[in-house]
Amino acid sequence: MRAVGYRKSLPITDPEALVDLDLPQPAPGPLDLLVKVEAVSVNPVDTKVRRRAEPEAGGAKVLGWDAAGTVVAAGAEVQGFAAGDAVFYAGDLTRPGTNAQFHCVDARIVGRKPARLDWAQAAALPLTAITAWETLFDRLDTGKPVPGAAPAILIVGGAGGVGSVAIQLARELTDLTVIATASRPETAAWCRDLGAHHVVDHSKPLAAEVAALGLGAPGLVFSTTNTDAHLAAIVELIAPQGRLALIDDPERLDVGLLKRKSLSLHWEFMFTRSMFATADIAAQGALLDEVARLIDSGRLRTTLGEHYGRIDAANLRRAHGLIESGRARGKIVLEGFSE
Description:
Elements (H helix, E strand, L loop, with lengths): L1 E5 L12 E4 L9 E11 L1 H9 L8 E2 L4 E8 L11 E4 L12 E5 L3 E3 L6 H5 L2 H14 L10 E7 L4 H13 L3 E5 L3 H10 L3 E3 L5 H6 L6 E6 L3 H11 L5 E4 L17 E4 L4 H5 L6 H14 L7 E4 L5 H13 L5 E5 L4
Parallel strand pairs: 9-10, 9-12, 10-11, 12-13, 13-14, 15-16
Antiparallel strand pairs: 1-2, 1-4, 3-5, 3-7, 3-16, 5-6, 6-8
Helix pairs in contact: 3-4, 3-9
């Protein structure tokens, strides 16, 4: 089968950073679905793994943790899926990735593809939807008010893949005022179009930007990027006893800053359930089914930003390059393999 991967960790400008491969088709385990991959999207985790994780000696590593496709076969213990089903999912960080014609995935973390979306539109969503959902509802517990705080959430990095879903979920499923951050006119417009009540500029002093809205101190902050750079401002602007969640990987984070306001810190990593086969692993499949229902009812929409064409090494190198530039808006999607 056709696939894209790498044999050595290299800068994305190197033609060997991602290469076209011919690999054996995998066989599903008892709890797996074998999926014919129709479309994939590219996430920051793809670039991080490519830069940091060397493949086994003599081998190649296939990236990709978002896919939409068609079930080809189901393992003996799988329930609820059959050949021909259209699905979408984000996969497992500890297993080969989705940048391949055929892919095996634990059926418990798979959802049924939204009927109103095409393959590319659906592939844009799983990883970011799971991350945003788990952050808002499992980590930040948005339904629990922070005493004395403004009923508002600040989403730092609102135009990114996760931020784009988080804005929609917070607007549709909570009563919170949604404040997003963006630093360019086009990304600010993107956030407003997704439903943000207010957009502030994170390239300016963030605490002053939020204070100028006149809403009071928000009780919840969801930081998707550059948390270390924004931490002091977040601590200044958030209400006492507020809750801060993050998803990025700061080299250092001075958590001592949180003590004075008794702030709680929540780190979201959407691969935790699949990596540790947690008792509630099936919650991710159920979550994706609910996201599909919300999309099909017109309450949520895809966050596809750019379609980069076929799934091949050259197009994936372009996608990695854009993500590493920090200027991506929404999700980058690729669709289909060359025959």
